[in-house]
Amino acid sequence: MSVIIQVLHHANDRPAAGDEDPVFLTSEQRASPHGVLTSFGGRTLRISLPRGSELGDGDVLARDGDVSVVVRAAAEPLFRLAPDEALHWGVAAFHLGNLHRPVRFTDTAMLTPADVRVADVLRDAGIAFEPVNAPFVGRRFGAYSGHDHDHDHDLDYHGDHTHHRHTHEP
Q1: Does domain 3-73 have CATH number 2.40.50.220?
Q2: Residues 47, 53: contact at Cβ < 8 Å?
Q3: Average per-residue pLDDT in the chain?
Q4: What separation in angstroms does the CA of 111 have from each of 7, 58, 96, 105?
Q5: In this predicted structure, which of 37-51, 124-138, 145-159 has the lowest mean pLDDT?
Q6: Which H or E element spans position 90?
Q7: Boundaries of every domain in the chain
Q8: What is the pLDDT of residue 15?
Q9: Which DSSP state fits 100?
Q10: 61 SS3 class
Q11: 73-106 pLDDT, tens per residue?
């Protein structure tokens, strides 16, 4: 068994040629860049992607003749929030962020994994939500800083340019 070290392409980037053999993965499984996967058709794939990689719904992992092995987001228990007021969108986002919950945004809703604590917080805040069993997909936003190191960033403003000044605590 060969090791897959990169995604070939996304299924939407090229016209479909041949059949698709899906690999159904939860969001947690898609976030793991290493492991052994089995497609719906029984193909076994070993993946070892670069650190921090996340598989996306529609990523093509391999070709086997005219068959593309494609990642498909598996349905999982989620809460769907579709507030009707801007204030409720803000309150929901605040609480989900404060609880460090993963969130995916669609054009009309927020999705987050179903959790009893989240349900209690949303109910207490008066935010309507519905439990759904669906793929956890949509747009996501990462942390503000791409840095993975331990120090403060103070901003210095010099003319038209912004400079980062690194300060280290003794």
Answers
A1: no
A2: no
A3: 84
A4: 25, 19, 10, 6
A5: 145-159
A6: helix 86-98
A7: 3-73, 75-135
A8: 64
A9: T
A10: strand
A11: 999 999 999 999 999 999 999 999 999 999 999 9
Beta strands in 12-65 (DSSP E): 19-25, 34-38, 44-48, 59-64
What is the value of pTM for the model shown?
Answer: 0.76
69-103 as b/e, with b when 16 or more CB fall inside 10 Å?
bbbbbbebebbbbebeeeebeebbbebbeeeebeb
Q: In this structure, which amino acid lies at residue 25?
A: L
Contacts of range 83-88, beta carbons closer than 8 Å, 24 or more positions apart? 83/127, 83/128, 88/126, 88/127, 88/128
* Higher pLDDT, residue 145 or 57: 57
Beta strands in 26-160 (DSSP E): 34-38, 44-48, 59-64, 67-73, 75-81, 104-105, 110-113, 130-135, 152-158
Please determine, for residue 14, whether its predicted confidence score (pLDDT) is greater than 90: no
pLDDT value for 147? 43
Q: Which CATH superfamily is domain 75-135 in?
A: UreE, C-terminal domain (3.30.70.790)
- Residue whose tokens read 């439990």: 131
